[in-house]
Amino acid sequence: MLTSRRLTRRGAEPGVAVDIALWAVVFGIIVARLYHVFTHPGDYFGEGKNLWAILFIWEGGNAIFGSLIGGAIGAYIGCRITGVRFWTFADALAPGMLLAQAIGRLGNWFNHELFGQPTNLPWGLEIESSNPAFPVGLADGTLFHPTFLYEILWNVFGAVLLLLIEREWRLQWGKLFALYLIWYGLGRIWFESIRVDPSQIFFGLRVNVEAAILAVLIGIVIFVVQRRRHPGVEPGPYVPGREWGRDDQVESRYTAEDFERPGDDDDQESAEVPATSSASPRSGSTRL
């Protein structure tokens, strides 16, 4: 809803954000699952493993960084189909993405999963020892860092921050989305570093820590490159030739002028609509 409103305020057709999101969500789910499978190969490959479990998405296992990759691919396809500039959509999406990710983290609370290291802080989370994710060797009643709560707060604050930054500096051409990648990546570097759930380790770091570092670097590159390439304001939300509401996109053979209430004989004559007319729409007509 937030993305649609922001995109419409930039001049895009109302509802076009949903058309793009349909592609983004489908690709996001697929690649999120593939990312999880290939970063947790021991759960799906090897002796005694059920390869079909790859398809059992209802049993959990979706990676946010995979969904970002797949979602970007789907959004690009959706933008190509609708004619919306990809970077315009990305900027409109950025604050809403953080809010959506904050909402999504509530699922970790209900499932009591993806928590952090033991802590004595008063807001520590108590996990039942019967939980499969409970670390071996720890006593009942041990409190853990609620990393999903940290991420919820980080994301909500980030969404507000992006909106304030955009209002002050009017960032476009993907620059606001670049700040989203930087902000989210910085937070995930810390959250992932204190989590205790199993993860692949490469070069001494959890794979999602490395993915978060990569997100920050990509965000910096996008911001620097787009600032140099596009220092000005976007001409509009659509690529040239695909603008919404153009006169040459009129589908009706009649125009608003054909249905004006006649005021005199001359107007009556001009207002009559020929039953077999094949004339093209008049210049400057509105779409019916």
UniProtKB/TrEMBL annotation:
The keyword Disulfide bond does not apply. Keywords: Cell membrane, Membrane, Transferase, Transmembrane, Transmembrane helix. InterPro entries: Lgt (IPR001640). Residues 275-288 have a biased composition (Polar residues). Belongs to the Lgt family. This is Phosphatidylglycerol--prolipoprotein diacylglyceryl transferase. The chain crosses the membrane at residues 20-38, 50-77, 84-104, 148-166, 173-191, 203-225. Residues 255-288 are annotated as: Disordered.
